[in-house]
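Hi R.,

As promised on Friday, here is the backbone we talked about, encoded as structure tokens. Could you run it through your design pipeline when you get a chance and send me back a sequence?
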């Protein structure tokens, strides 16, 4: 009889790849079929819960198909299912069936970032008083909160996400037209908030994510958008508690 870890891996591989239990020593075929069906239902429902707007846009039938194909290509790698679905947006982008709905993968990317934002911790925020007390603010190391994420898209995915959340399946009157969009996704108490930002704001947050160097982030932001009101951007970050102490 194989060792327990080997047996578990063998069962997982057969479940994901539509195998059977013909030569498994401890699992009758009928019981294996139950495992198979239950696992696929769980993975499908997990994706639907993580990507509810994407699921609504795709429709029940296509979402079920996509979730089953995704599970075969990207089976869970650990028992922590919070990470399951990270590759789903890129998987959708490769589906030829979605060529005429090119914005759907970016909606999925937004939802995955929202998922990560909700699970990320919130650190004690940097206060305006502490910022003002710095001898030279331009030497400050500004650190974004771990729950702040940014997304750049060729579509107004933030507006569509908000409309679908407000109207659900009754969505009407929303015309999807390509427009370059920059959005910050973050956790606000027990909800997810979206903040539409400019390209300069996006560059500023992007650089702070890579390094907390304020002068370099400011330089990159102003290079992308010469008229950026950096003081207003900083004030909003402080007000929304998006900078960590």
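Update: got your reply. Pasting your designed sequence below so it's all in one thread:
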């Amino acid at each position: 009889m194989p060792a327990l870890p080997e047996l578990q891996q063998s069962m997982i591989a057969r479940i994901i790849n539509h195998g059977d239990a013909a030569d498994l020593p401890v699992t009758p075929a009928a019981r294996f079929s139950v495992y198979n069906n239950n696992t696929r239902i769980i993975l499908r429902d997990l994706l639907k819960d993580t990507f509810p707007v994407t699921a609504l846009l795709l429709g029940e039938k296509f979402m079920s198909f996509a979730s089953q194909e995704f599970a075969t290509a990207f089976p869970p790698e650990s028992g922590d299912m919070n990470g399951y679905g990270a590759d789903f947006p890129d998987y959708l982008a490769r589906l030829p069936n979605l060529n005429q709905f090119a914005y759907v993968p970016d909606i999925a990317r937004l939802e995955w970032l929202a998922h990560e934002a909700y699970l990320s911790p919130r650190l004690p925020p940097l206060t305006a008083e502490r910022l003002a007390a710095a001898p030279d603010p331009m030497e400050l190391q500004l650190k974004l909160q771990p729950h702040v994420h940014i997304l750049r898209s060729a579509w107004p995915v933030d507006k569509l996400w908000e409309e679908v959340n407000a109207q659900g399946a009754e969505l009407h009157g929303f015309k999807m037209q390509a427009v370059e969009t920059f959005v910050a996704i973050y956790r606000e108490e027990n909800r997810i908030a979206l903040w539409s930002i400019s390209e300069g704001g996006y560059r500023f947050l992007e650089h702070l994510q890579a390094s907390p160097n304020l002068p370099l982030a400011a330089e990159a932001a102003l290079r992308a958008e010469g008229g950026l009101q950096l003081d207003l951007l900083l004030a909003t970050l402080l007000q929304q508690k998006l900078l960590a102490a």
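One thing I noticed while checking it: The beta strands are 143-144, 149-153, 181-188, 191-197, 243-244.

Thanks again,
M.
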